[in-house]
Design brief:
The chain is α/β, with parallel strands linked by helices. The protein contains eight helices and twelve strands. The longest helix has 25 residues.
């Protein structure tokens, strides 16, 4: 075979491989209507993998007469683009606002797919994307592979604050909290009673804790449970019609906090803490074993330092 023919064959093979890869990069996004004008796209209750492309997150959108409000943009540019197409299948209204509930990568790395002027978040979230977005993006490439092609972190330019937000006939309440991260935004649509809780609430999936402050998180959950809502959209897991996911998240965090405190007071090393069994009520949660191991690695050193300090002061 001559060199020109070999080159043509190689180019054909490459082109065919790229077409197959593009065909495989389909998140299969299927919006589910949960209230008037309100749709949710529920992610898988899994860890990030090459197979799911990072689609483990819940995103949502509300169609109003003044445009569409999007809540979180997903884990990649491809996800964001497919989310826009999913919205276009429902309405011809333009996207008016895209809110990132916090700065974890599965909630903002789809921002590229939307006009920059529509992107908005709390100041702490914007700061977190600026400071950690690059490393998050690099890590997502390692975890999700080709699904991340072309993805770059884009931080919102519009900074939000707690309080009312009106869009068309919908009256939203922006609720600024913290605990899962340093800046967590929950959104209550007072027009429909739907509460978008972001990653402050997990449902039938163990919570993630890379930036967690457990006491602040518990306080945030108390505030969310005190709200009047009809549907609850967690950051991960199925939509609910009551406060069950809030109580479930609270129970996991309380157990985790008590377990790490007791282990540190007893002088256990990290290997011994990792070997502790999960209670039966939590073993059924998706990725519970993996999230427990990650939480020990992320949080336990601080508990050890606290126990060491208390010992030095005789407390």
């Amino acid at each position: 075979m001559s060199a020109p023919i070999r080159l043509l064959v190689a180019l054909f093979a490459l082109g065919w491989a790229l077409l197959l890869a593009a065909a495989d990069m389909d998140y299969g996004l299927a919006p589910e209507k949960i209230a008037d004008d309100t749709w949710v796209l529920t992610g898988r209750s899994e860890d990030f993998t090459f197979k799911n492309g990072g689609n483990i997150v819940n995103t949502a959108f509300v169609v109003t007469s003044a445009g569409v409000l999007v809540i979180d943009s997903g884990p990649s540019r491809t996800y964001g683009e497919q989310l826009r197409r999913a919205i276009a299948r429902i309405t011809d209204q333009p996207v008016a606002l895209v809110i990132n509930t916090h700065h974890h990568p599965d909630h903002f790395l789809g921002n590229q797919a939307f006009p920059p002027e529509t992107l908005a978040a709390l100041p702490g979230t914007v700061e977190g994307i600026h400071s950690e977005g690059g490393s998050f993006n690099d890590n997502m490439y390692r975890l999700a592979g080709d699904w991340m092609a072309g993805t770059e972190p884009v931080a919102p330019t519009r900074q939000l604050k707690a309080g009312p937000l009106e869009l068309g006939s919908h009256r939203f309440e922006l609720i600024a909290l913290d605990g899962h991260t340093g800046a967590d935004l929950a959104i209550l649509d007072r027009s429909t009673g739907v509460l978008f809780a972001g990653d402050l609430v997990f449902n039938d999936r163990a919570p993630t804790t890379p930036h967690a402050h457990l006491q602040a998180w518990q306080s945030a959950l108390n505030k969310l449970e005190a709200l009047k809502f009809t549907r609850l959209v967690p950051g991960h897991g199925p939509v609910a019609s009551d406060a069950g996911p809030i109580r479930q998240t609270r129970a996991w965090l309380a157990w985790l906090d008590a377990t790490l405190h007791r282990a540190a007071d007893d002088g256990l090393d990290m290997t011994e803490v990792l070997a502790l069994p999960l209670p039966a009520e939590f073993r059924r949660l998706a990725v519970a074993d993996a999230e427990y191991r990650r939480s020990v690695g992320q949080l336990y050193p601080a508990y050890e330092l606290q126990a060491l300090g208390a010992g030095k002061t005789g407390k």
